[in-house]
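We both want to read C-alpha coordinates more fluently, so let's practise on a single case. Once you have written the record down, we can walk along the chain together.
***
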Amino acid sequence: MATQDLPTTQDAAPAQNTVPAQGTAHGHGTPAAGFPAGVTEPEYQLWGEVDTDPAGVFRDVSEADRTYWDRARRFCLEEVRPAIDAHWNAATYPLGLVRRLGELDLLRDGLEVEGYAPMSALAAGLVNMELSRGDGSVGTVAAVQAGLALRSIVACGSPEQIARWAPRLAAAEALGAFALTEPTHGSDSVSLQTRAVRVPGGYRISGEKKWIGNGSLGAVGIPALTVVWARDDAGAVRGFLVPQDSPGYAGTTIEGKLSLRAVWQAHLRLEDVFVPDAMALPGAGSFKDAARVLVATRLGVAWSAVGHATACYETAVQYAAQRVQFGRPLAASQIVQERLARMRSELATMQLMAVQMTRLEAAGELAPAQASLAKYTCTRTARRIASTARDLLGGNGILLENRVARHFADIEAIHTYEGTETVQALIIGRDITGISAFTN
Protein backbone atom coordinates (compact mmCIF):
# COMPACT_ATOMS: atom_id res chain seq x y z
CA MET A 1 0.00 0.00 0.00
CA ALA A 2 1.33 3.43 -0.91
CA THR A 3 1.92 5.54 2.15
CA GLN A 4 0.53 9.06 2.24
CA ASP A 5 2.71 11.49 4.11
CA LEU A 6 2.99 15.12 4.98
CA PRO A 7 6.22 16.96 4.23
CA THR A 8 8.30 18.55 6.92
CA THR A 9 7.53 22.21 7.51
CA GLN A 10 11.13 23.05 6.69
CA ASP A 11 11.88 24.59 3.28
CA ALA A 12 12.32 21.69 0.87
CA ALA A 13 14.42 23.69 -1.62
CA PRO A 14 18.08 22.58 -1.74
CA ALA A 15 20.63 24.87 -0.17
CA GLN A 16 23.03 26.48 -2.63
CA ASN A 17 26.32 25.72 -0.93
CA THR A 18 25.84 22.07 -0.03
CA VAL A 19 27.46 18.87 -1.16
CA PRO A 20 24.90 16.60 -2.85
CA ALA A 21 24.15 13.22 -1.34
CA GLN A 22 26.12 10.32 -2.83
CA GLY A 23 23.73 7.43 -2.29
CA THR A 24 23.88 4.53 0.09
CA ALA A 25 26.82 2.46 1.19
CA HIS A 26 25.40 -0.67 -0.44
CA GLY A 27 24.60 -1.54 -4.04
CA HIS A 28 28.02 -1.23 -5.69
CA GLY A 29 27.26 -4.00 -8.18
CA THR A 30 29.46 -6.94 -9.12
CA PRO A 31 33.14 -6.38 -8.21
CA ALA A 32 35.63 -6.19 -11.07
CA ALA A 33 38.06 -9.03 -11.60
CA GLY A 34 40.83 -8.94 -9.04
CA PHE A 35 38.78 -6.89 -6.54
CA PRO A 36 39.73 -8.00 -3.00
CA ALA A 37 37.41 -10.62 -1.57
CA GLY A 38 35.83 -10.02 1.82
CA VAL A 39 35.90 -6.21 1.90
CA THR A 40 32.28 -5.60 0.86
CA GLU A 41 29.96 -5.52 3.85
CA PRO A 42 26.84 -7.69 3.69
CA GLU A 43 23.36 -6.29 4.16
CA TYR A 44 22.31 -7.38 7.63
CA GLN A 45 18.86 -8.89 8.15
CA LEU A 46 17.70 -7.37 11.42
CA TRP A 47 13.89 -7.72 11.40
CA GLY A 48 13.76 -11.51 11.67
CA GLU A 49 12.12 -13.61 14.36
CA VAL A 50 13.94 -13.89 17.68
CA ASP A 51 12.74 -15.38 20.98
CA THR A 52 11.71 -12.21 22.79
CA ASP A 53 9.70 -13.90 25.57
CA PRO A 54 12.40 -15.71 27.55
CA ALA A 55 10.32 -16.02 30.74
CA GLY A 56 7.15 -17.14 28.98
CA VAL A 57 5.31 -14.04 30.15
CA PHE A 58 3.09 -14.00 27.08
CA ARG A 59 2.63 -17.75 26.73
CA ASP A 60 -0.97 -17.72 27.99
CA VAL A 61 -2.21 -14.67 26.12
CA SER A 62 -5.81 -15.32 25.08
CA GLU A 63 -6.79 -15.82 21.46
CA ALA A 64 -8.74 -12.55 21.42
CA ASP A 65 -5.78 -10.58 22.77
CA ARG A 66 -3.35 -12.34 20.46
CA THR A 67 -5.50 -11.38 17.47
CA TYR A 68 -4.92 -7.70 18.19
CA TRP A 69 -1.24 -8.34 18.89
CA ASP A 70 -0.69 -10.27 15.65
CA ARG A 71 -2.52 -7.60 13.67
CA ALA A 72 -0.20 -4.91 15.02
CA ARG A 73 2.82 -7.12 14.33
CA ARG A 74 1.84 -7.69 10.69
CA PHE A 75 1.13 -4.00 10.22
CA CYS A 76 4.60 -3.06 11.45
CA LEU A 77 6.40 -5.68 9.39
CA GLU A 78 4.47 -5.16 6.17
CA GLU A 79 3.69 -1.43 6.21
CA VAL A 80 5.79 0.41 8.81
CA ARG A 81 9.08 -1.34 8.11
CA PRO A 82 9.42 -0.34 4.41
CA ALA A 83 8.51 3.32 4.99
CA ILE A 84 9.53 4.49 8.43
CA ASP A 85 13.23 5.26 7.98
CA ALA A 86 12.43 7.73 5.21
CA HIS A 87 9.72 9.40 7.30
CA TRP A 88 12.00 9.61 10.35
CA ASN A 89 14.92 10.96 8.32
CA ALA A 90 12.85 13.64 6.57
CA ALA A 91 10.57 14.44 9.54
CA THR A 92 7.46 13.74 7.47
CA TYR A 93 4.19 12.78 9.13
CA PRO A 94 3.09 9.27 8.02
CA LEU A 95 -0.58 10.11 7.51
CA GLY A 96 -1.20 6.97 5.44
CA LEU A 97 0.08 4.76 8.24
CA VAL A 98 -2.04 6.60 10.78
CA ARG A 99 -5.16 6.12 8.68
CA ARG A 100 -4.32 2.42 8.48
CA LEU A 101 -4.15 2.23 12.27
CA GLY A 102 -7.77 3.32 12.33
CA GLU A 103 -8.78 0.86 9.62
CA LEU A 104 -7.13 -1.98 11.57
CA ASP A 105 -8.77 -1.01 14.89
CA LEU A 106 -5.45 -0.25 16.58
CA LEU A 107 -6.39 3.20 17.89
CA ARG A 108 -8.56 2.53 20.94
CA ASP A 109 -6.15 1.70 23.76
CA GLY A 110 -8.71 -0.67 25.28
CA LEU A 111 -11.48 1.95 25.42
CA GLU A 112 -15.08 1.03 24.67
CA VAL A 113 -16.37 2.66 21.50
CA GLU A 114 -19.76 1.85 20.03
CA GLY A 115 -19.53 -0.41 17.01
CA TYR A 116 -16.18 -1.93 17.99
CA ALA A 117 -15.37 -5.31 19.50
CA PRO A 118 -14.08 -5.39 23.09
CA MET A 119 -10.35 -4.80 23.58
CA SER A 120 -8.85 -5.83 26.92
CA ALA A 121 -6.26 -3.83 28.82
CA LEU A 122 -3.67 -6.50 27.99
CA ALA A 123 -4.53 -6.38 24.29
CA ALA A 124 -4.11 -2.59 24.39
CA GLY A 125 -0.71 -2.98 26.05
CA LEU A 126 0.45 -5.57 23.52
CA VAL A 127 -0.62 -3.32 20.64
CA ASN A 128 1.22 -0.39 22.21
CA MET A 129 4.32 -2.55 22.65
CA GLU A 130 4.20 -3.85 19.10
CA LEU A 131 3.70 -0.45 17.48
CA SER A 132 6.68 0.95 19.38
CA ARG A 133 8.69 -2.14 18.47
CA GLY A 134 8.04 -1.12 14.87
CA ASP A 135 8.62 2.59 15.41
CA GLY A 136 8.38 5.08 18.23
CA SER A 137 6.70 7.82 16.20
CA VAL A 138 3.93 5.46 15.11
CA GLY A 139 3.53 4.27 18.69
CA THR A 140 3.39 7.86 19.95
CA VAL A 141 0.74 8.88 17.42
CA ALA A 142 -1.40 5.98 18.67
CA ALA A 143 -0.73 6.95 22.30
CA VAL A 144 -1.78 10.56 21.68
CA GLN A 145 -4.79 9.70 19.54
CA ALA A 146 -6.19 6.96 21.76
CA GLY A 147 -4.48 7.15 25.14
CA LEU A 148 -4.87 10.91 25.58
CA ALA A 149 -7.42 12.47 23.21
CA LEU A 150 -9.91 9.61 22.92
CA ARG A 151 -9.53 8.70 26.61
CA SER A 152 -10.27 12.30 27.64
CA ILE A 153 -13.51 12.25 25.68
CA VAL A 154 -14.61 8.80 26.80
CA ALA A 155 -13.76 9.52 30.46
CA CYS A 156 -14.91 13.13 30.68
CA GLY A 157 -17.25 13.78 27.77
CA SER A 158 -21.03 13.99 27.56
CA PRO A 159 -22.95 11.23 25.76
CA GLU A 160 -23.34 13.57 22.79
CA GLN A 161 -19.61 14.37 22.67
CA ILE A 162 -18.70 10.70 22.93
CA ALA A 163 -21.15 9.73 20.19
CA ARG A 164 -19.85 12.46 17.90
CA TRP A 165 -16.11 12.16 18.39
CA ALA A 166 -15.15 8.72 19.74
CA PRO A 167 -15.93 6.73 16.56
CA ARG A 168 -14.17 9.32 14.38
CA LEU A 169 -11.02 9.25 16.50
CA ALA A 170 -11.00 5.45 16.71
CA ALA A 171 -11.25 5.25 12.92
CA ALA A 172 -8.67 8.04 12.37
CA GLU A 173 -11.26 9.97 10.39
CA ALA A 174 -10.34 12.87 12.66
CA LEU A 175 -7.01 13.13 14.47
CA GLY A 176 -6.70 14.11 18.09
CA ALA A 177 -4.30 16.06 20.31
CA PHE A 178 -4.00 16.64 24.07
CA ALA A 179 -2.82 20.08 25.16
CA LEU A 180 -1.78 20.27 28.81
CA THR A 181 1.95 21.11 28.88
CA GLU A 182 2.90 24.77 28.52
CA PRO A 183 6.20 26.39 27.50
CA THR A 184 6.79 27.52 31.09
CA HIS A 185 5.06 24.61 32.83
CA GLY A 186 6.39 21.17 31.94
CA SER A 187 6.87 18.98 34.99
CA ASP A 188 4.72 21.38 37.04
CA SER A 189 1.80 21.21 34.62
CA VAL A 190 -0.55 21.64 37.58
CA SER A 191 0.50 25.31 37.50
CA LEU A 192 -0.82 25.85 33.96
CA GLN A 193 -1.82 29.43 33.15
CA THR A 194 -3.89 29.15 29.95
CA ARG A 195 -7.22 30.87 30.67
CA ALA A 196 -10.82 30.09 29.73
CA VAL A 197 -12.92 33.20 30.31
CA ARG A 198 -16.68 32.76 30.55
CA VAL A 199 -18.66 34.61 27.88
CA PRO A 200 -22.25 34.27 26.65
CA GLY A 201 -22.68 30.85 25.08
CA GLY A 202 -19.27 29.49 26.00
CA TYR A 203 -15.66 30.41 26.76
CA ARG A 204 -12.79 32.40 25.28
CA ILE A 205 -9.47 30.57 25.63
CA SER A 206 -6.07 32.28 25.52
CA GLY A 207 -2.65 30.83 26.25
CA GLU A 208 0.18 28.70 24.89
CA LYS A 209 0.97 24.98 24.90
CA LYS A 210 4.10 23.08 23.91
CA TRP A 211 5.06 19.57 22.80
CA ILE A 212 1.53 18.82 21.64
CA GLY A 213 1.54 15.71 19.44
CA ASN A 214 -0.78 16.06 16.43
CA GLY A 215 -1.37 19.67 17.46
CA SER A 216 -0.48 21.27 14.12
CA LEU A 217 -2.28 18.97 11.68
CA GLY A 218 -5.16 21.39 11.24
CA ALA A 219 -2.71 23.87 9.72
CA VAL A 220 -2.37 21.62 6.66
CA GLY A 221 -6.08 20.93 6.29
CA ILE A 222 -6.46 17.66 8.19
CA PRO A 223 -9.61 17.39 10.34
CA ALA A 224 -8.20 17.48 13.87
CA LEU A 225 -9.40 18.18 17.38
CA THR A 226 -7.36 19.27 20.42
CA VAL A 227 -8.34 18.63 24.03
CA VAL A 228 -7.21 21.88 25.66
CA TRP A 229 -6.82 22.20 29.44
CA ALA A 230 -7.27 25.71 30.83
CA ARG A 231 -8.26 27.53 34.03
CA ASP A 232 -11.72 29.03 34.26
CA ASP A 233 -12.67 32.23 36.05
CA ALA A 234 -12.71 30.40 39.40
CA GLY A 235 -9.23 28.97 38.84
CA ALA A 236 -10.45 25.41 38.24
CA VAL A 237 -8.74 23.39 35.50
CA ARG A 238 -11.26 22.50 32.78
CA GLY A 239 -11.09 20.46 29.59
CA PHE A 240 -12.35 21.77 26.22
CA LEU A 241 -12.68 20.30 22.74
CA VAL A 242 -11.15 22.74 20.26
CA PRO A 243 -11.20 22.04 16.50
CA GLN A 244 -7.84 23.03 15.07
CA ASP A 245 -9.45 25.19 12.39
CA SER A 246 -10.98 27.44 15.06
CA PRO A 247 -10.23 31.17 14.60
CA GLY A 248 -7.37 32.14 16.91
CA TYR A 249 -5.90 28.62 17.12
CA ALA A 250 -2.36 28.46 15.71
CA GLY A 251 -0.28 25.27 15.77
CA THR A 252 3.35 25.46 14.68
CA THR A 253 5.29 22.23 14.21
CA ILE A 254 8.43 22.14 16.37
CA GLU A 255 11.48 21.61 14.18
CA GLY A 256 15.00 20.43 14.92
CA LYS A 257 13.95 17.39 16.98
CA LEU A 258 16.38 14.49 17.28
CA SER A 259 13.75 12.10 18.61
CA LEU A 260 10.32 10.93 17.38
CA ARG A 261 10.95 12.77 14.15
CA ALA A 262 8.01 11.23 12.29
CA VAL A 263 5.36 12.61 14.64
CA TRP A 264 4.56 16.31 14.52
CA GLN A 265 4.66 17.94 17.94
CA ALA A 266 3.49 21.51 18.09
CA HIS A 267 3.76 24.80 19.87
CA LEU A 268 0.21 26.10 20.21
CA ARG A 269 -0.91 29.68 20.60
CA LEU A 270 -4.57 30.28 21.37
CA GLU A 271 -5.73 33.88 21.16
CA ASP A 272 -9.30 34.51 22.25
CA VAL A 273 -10.49 31.17 20.80
CA PHE A 274 -14.24 30.82 21.24
CA VAL A 275 -15.41 27.42 22.50
CA PRO A 276 -19.18 26.89 22.81
CA ASP A 277 -20.64 25.30 25.90
CA ALA A 278 -21.34 22.14 23.92
CA MET A 279 -17.57 21.63 23.49
CA ALA A 280 -16.69 21.90 27.19
CA LEU A 281 -16.07 18.46 28.72
CA PRO A 282 -18.58 18.18 31.60
CA GLY A 283 -16.50 15.58 33.44
CA ALA A 284 -13.26 17.59 33.26
CA GLY A 285 -13.59 20.13 36.06
CA SER A 286 -10.29 19.83 37.93
CA PHE A 287 -6.66 18.90 37.45
CA LYS A 288 -7.49 15.53 39.01
CA ASP A 289 -9.48 14.72 35.89
CA ALA A 290 -6.49 15.43 33.67
CA ALA A 291 -4.35 13.37 36.05
CA ARG A 292 -6.71 10.39 35.68
CA VAL A 293 -5.99 10.37 31.97
CA LEU A 294 -2.24 10.69 32.55
CA VAL A 295 -2.12 7.81 35.05
CA ALA A 296 -3.58 5.46 32.45
CA THR A 297 -1.17 6.65 29.77
CA ARG A 298 1.87 6.19 32.02
CA LEU A 299 1.27 2.46 31.91
CA GLY A 300 1.02 2.81 28.13
CA VAL A 301 4.44 4.48 28.09
CA ALA A 302 5.81 1.50 30.04
CA TRP A 303 4.48 -0.82 27.33
CA SER A 304 6.00 1.44 24.69
CA ALA A 305 9.37 1.14 26.43
CA VAL A 306 9.03 -2.66 26.32
CA GLY A 307 8.49 -2.38 22.56
CA HIS A 308 11.57 -0.22 22.02
CA ALA A 309 13.67 -2.53 24.18
CA THR A 310 12.41 -5.57 22.28
CA ALA A 311 13.45 -4.02 18.97
CA CYS A 312 16.93 -3.20 20.29
CA TYR A 313 17.40 -6.64 21.82
CA GLU A 314 16.30 -8.60 18.77
CA THR A 315 18.42 -6.40 16.50
CA ALA A 316 21.49 -6.99 18.68
CA VAL A 317 20.91 -10.78 18.68
CA GLN A 318 20.63 -10.92 14.88
CA TYR A 319 23.54 -8.58 14.26
CA ALA A 320 25.79 -10.54 16.61
CA ALA A 321 25.05 -13.70 14.67
CA GLN A 322 25.76 -12.12 11.26
CA ARG A 323 28.65 -9.75 11.95
CA VAL A 324 32.04 -11.47 11.63
CA GLN A 325 35.11 -10.03 13.33
CA PHE A 326 38.42 -11.68 14.19
CA GLY A 327 37.40 -14.66 12.11
CA ARG A 328 34.18 -15.52 13.94
CA PRO A 329 30.69 -14.11 14.58
CA LEU A 330 30.40 -11.56 17.36
CA ALA A 331 28.00 -13.98 19.03
CA ALA A 332 30.90 -16.37 19.66
CA SER A 333 32.59 -13.87 21.98
CA GLN A 334 32.11 -14.23 25.72
CA ILE A 335 31.64 -10.51 26.33
CA VAL A 336 28.96 -10.32 23.63
CA GLN A 337 27.11 -13.27 25.10
CA GLU A 338 27.25 -11.63 28.55
CA ARG A 339 25.73 -8.45 27.12
CA LEU A 340 22.99 -10.36 25.33
CA ALA A 341 22.23 -12.28 28.54
CA ARG A 342 22.00 -9.02 30.48
CA MET A 343 19.68 -7.51 27.86
CA ARG A 344 17.45 -10.58 27.94
CA SER A 345 17.24 -10.43 31.73
CA GLU A 346 16.33 -6.74 31.66
CA LEU A 347 13.73 -7.29 28.94
CA ALA A 348 12.04 -10.07 30.92
CA THR A 349 11.94 -7.79 33.98
CA MET A 350 10.18 -5.09 31.97
CA GLN A 351 7.68 -7.57 30.54
CA LEU A 352 6.79 -8.90 33.97
CA MET A 353 6.32 -5.38 35.33
CA ALA A 354 4.08 -4.31 32.44
CA VAL A 355 1.90 -7.42 32.57
CA GLN A 356 1.40 -7.30 36.34
CA MET A 357 0.51 -3.62 36.35
CA THR A 358 -1.92 -4.25 33.48
CA ARG A 359 -3.62 -6.96 35.53
CA LEU A 360 -4.09 -4.41 38.31
CA GLU A 361 -5.47 -1.88 35.82
CA ALA A 362 -7.95 -4.42 34.44
CA ALA A 363 -9.13 -5.12 37.99
CA GLY A 364 -9.51 -1.40 38.73
CA GLU A 365 -6.76 -1.60 41.35
CA LEU A 366 -3.88 0.28 39.70
CA ALA A 367 -2.69 3.08 41.98
CA PRO A 368 -1.00 6.21 40.57
CA ALA A 369 2.29 5.31 42.28
CA GLN A 370 2.19 1.89 40.63
CA ALA A 371 1.69 3.45 37.19
CA SER A 372 4.65 5.71 37.93
CA LEU A 373 6.72 2.72 39.05
CA ALA A 374 5.98 0.97 35.75
CA LYS A 375 7.03 3.97 33.66
CA TYR A 376 10.06 4.72 35.85
CA THR A 377 11.31 1.12 35.69
CA CYS A 378 10.60 0.40 32.05
CA THR A 379 11.90 3.58 30.43
CA ARG A 380 15.08 3.50 32.52
CA THR A 381 15.67 -0.13 31.60
CA ALA A 382 14.89 0.47 27.93
CA ARG A 383 17.57 3.15 27.83
CA ARG A 384 20.13 0.66 29.13
CA ILE A 385 19.13 -1.99 26.61
CA ALA A 386 19.26 0.53 23.76
CA SER A 387 22.67 1.77 24.87
CA THR A 388 24.05 -1.75 25.04
CA ALA A 389 22.64 -2.62 21.62
CA ARG A 390 23.99 0.55 20.04
CA ASP A 391 27.45 -0.16 21.43
CA LEU A 392 27.33 -3.78 20.30
CA LEU A 393 26.63 -2.67 16.72
CA GLY A 394 29.67 -0.41 16.74
CA GLY A 395 29.68 2.24 14.03
CA ASN A 396 26.77 0.51 12.31
CA GLY A 397 24.71 1.27 15.39
CA ILE A 398 24.26 4.91 14.36
CA LEU A 399 22.81 4.09 10.91
CA LEU A 400 19.04 4.29 10.47
CA GLU A 401 19.00 1.18 8.31
CA ASN A 402 20.17 -0.88 11.29
CA ARG A 403 17.14 0.01 13.49
CA VAL A 404 18.86 0.64 16.82
CA ALA A 405 19.74 4.31 16.22
CA ARG A 406 16.12 5.28 15.68
CA HIS A 407 14.96 3.48 18.82
CA PHE A 408 17.95 4.78 20.77
CA ALA A 409 16.90 8.35 19.96
CA ASP A 410 13.17 7.81 20.40
CA ILE A 411 13.52 6.26 23.86
CA GLU A 412 14.89 9.60 25.06
CA ALA A 413 11.53 11.22 24.31
CA ILE A 414 9.35 8.57 25.96
CA HIS A 415 11.65 8.62 28.98
CA THR A 416 10.65 12.28 29.39
CA TYR A 417 7.04 12.62 28.31
CA GLU A 418 4.03 11.87 30.53
CA GLY A 419 6.24 12.82 33.49
CA THR A 420 10.03 12.85 33.67
CA GLU A 421 12.06 10.26 35.56
CA THR A 422 12.45 12.74 38.44
CA VAL A 423 8.72 13.40 38.67
CA GLN A 424 7.96 9.67 38.68
CA ALA A 425 10.58 9.18 41.39
CA LEU A 426 8.93 11.87 43.54
CA ILE A 427 5.52 10.24 43.12
CA ILE A 428 7.01 6.90 44.16
CA GLY A 429 8.93 8.54 47.01
CA ARG A 430 5.78 10.18 48.32
CA ASP A 431 4.09 6.78 48.32
CA ILE A 432 7.00 5.27 50.25
CA THR A 433 7.41 7.99 52.88
CA GLY A 434 4.02 9.69 53.03
CA ILE A 435 5.82 13.00 52.55
CA SER A 436 5.46 15.12 49.39
CA ALA A 437 8.71 16.60 48.11
CA PHE A 438 7.03 18.52 45.27
CA THR A 439 6.57 21.68 47.36
CA ASN A 440 8.36 23.31 50.26
The chain has three domains: 63-170, 176-279, 287-433. DSSP finds ten helices and nine strands in the chain. Residues 287-433 form a domain with the Butyryl-CoA Dehydrogenase, subunit A; domain 3 fold (CATH 1.20.140.10). The longest helix spans residues 287-322.
